[in-house]
Amino acid sequence: MNDIFWRTLWHGAIKADTYPSKDFSGTPESSDERMIGNYKNEWWGPADKSPRSIRYSASYKAEKAGKYLVLAAASGSDHYTVSADGRKIIEQAQVEGQHPESASIDLASGQTISVVADYLPGFAGNRFGLGIINEADMISEDVKRFATAADAAVVAVGFNPSTESEGLDRTFNLPWGQDALIEAVAAANAHTIVTLTGGGGMDTRRWLDKVPALVHNYYPGQEGGFAVAQVLLGKHNPEGKLPVSFDRSWEDNPSYNFYYPIPGADTSLHVVEVGHPDVDYVIPHLKYNDKLMVGYRYWTTTGKHPLFPFGFGLSYTTFSFSNLNVPATAASGSDVTVSFDVTNTGNVAGAEVAQLYVSDPSARAQRPERELKGFEKVRLAPGETKHVTLSLDARAFSYWDETAHKWSIDPGKFVIRVGDSSENTPLTADLTMN
């Protein structure tokens, strides 16, 4: 990474303006720099003796047409933004712990762009780096040669302990350069399979429609490579289901507007402890206005659709649901028995996770459109059918009444839905609770 910072051929000198403030106000001290390569992976450091903010202004000229990677990195609680021709393309929030951020831009041959980076150090020193490189130059010719010669190609990408760990928020984008690698291999081999390693969803928009298969591993452990090979070679039928919804972009996530502290809402805490100096803490505040509308509850309630819904997962076989049996009425607070059939309609043995959702359109309080209240995994031979029975207790039909401070059931209509994801529930039946 530092190599990219050091060998970026900026078009002319880089102007570095250091302001005596935290908001780029006042008269700056100016200097000319050859590169922006001060990055150091430091989490902590001494406090600044005086406020500073640094603005880098530079030009970059593309030697050839193509996609260019803009890579930036800082440390600790540093904050920065990067703009190209006046358009902000990268922003690192001022939060504890961070990792490199990147953006991809298209440039014509000979095109010159103006790049401005505003850097606000979190503590003494300078740990900011910025560079630009043509994405094609990052991909070895051997990669393209091997991909072209192979019957199929597997590209293993994602995150590791340095890019996703406790104490920092990883990017929704894949680590820098990985999108370009996938695109290069997919262009060389139409049978390209992508395996993703990481703790959740990530941005796949650049290449998802260019590859025929995607396998999400999460963190599979030391036998993960063997497990993935077993699945890809057909030795094991994949049967995993998503425990979260996968968004197309971080901005689409229903918690996006409520994730970071509210600007200007900080409070202070003065701590006095015998035998220790007094300490003043700044306490950031968040407001969880997403409330219950997180994940699939948000998507199904709004009628919008994520990239992949909660509960989704493909298999080498297919399944169908039928014969839903739900009582027409039930007493409030009583258990309700729901049954249905699941059939393997394909040619190989496999496992399906049947999912039961409950909708409460009669609720007096605002409720999600549906909520998962039961599930069961069934293994089926080709053509086999199993009858599944699930029992729903009172809590399955209850919600927390904020006024009464208890779990409550509002009499009226409930809807029972059964299927293989939060968005695919082919079986439905009404139930009236007295």
Low-confidence stretches: none
Give me the CATH architecture of the largest domain, please: Sandwich
Straight-line N-to-C gap: 65 Å
Order of helices and strands: HEEEEEEEEEEHEHEEHEEHEEEEEEEEEE
Strand content: 35-45%
Would you tell me the structural class of the helices and strands?
mainly beta
**Globular, elongated, flat, extended or rod-shaped: what is the shape?**
globular
Give the integer mean of the pLDDT values. 93
Overall number of structural domains: 3
Please give the count of helices: 5
Quantity of strands, as a count: 25
Measured as a percent range, the helix fraction is under 10%
CATH fold category name of the largest domain: Jelly Rolls
Report what the structure shows.
- By secondary structure, the chain is mainly beta.
- It folds into three domains: 2-137, Jelly Rolls, CATH 2.60.120; 141-232, 3-Layer(aba) Sandwich (Rossmann fold); 311-433, Immunoglobulin-like (Sandwich).
- Helix content is 10%, strand content 37%.
- It has helices spanning 2-7, 141-149, 178-188, 224-232, 296-302, and strands at 14-19, 29-33, 36-37, 53-61, 66-73, 79-84, 87-92, 101-107, 112-120, 129-134, 153-158, 192-197, 213-218, 267-271, 279-283, 319-325, 329-330, 336-344, 350-359, 371-380, 385-392, 399-401, 406-408, 412-419, 427-433.
- Strands 2-1-4-9-6-7 form a six-stranded antiparallel β-sheet, with no helix packed on it. Strands 17-25-24-19-20 form a five-stranded mixed β-sheet, with no helix packed on it. The protein has a four-stranded antiparallel β-sheet with strand order 3-10-5-8.
- A hairpin with a 4-residue loop joins strand 22 (399-401) and strand 23.
- Helix 2 packs across helix 3.
- The longest helix is centred in the middle third of the chain and has 11 residues, at 178-188.
- The radius of gyration is 27 Å and the shape is globular.
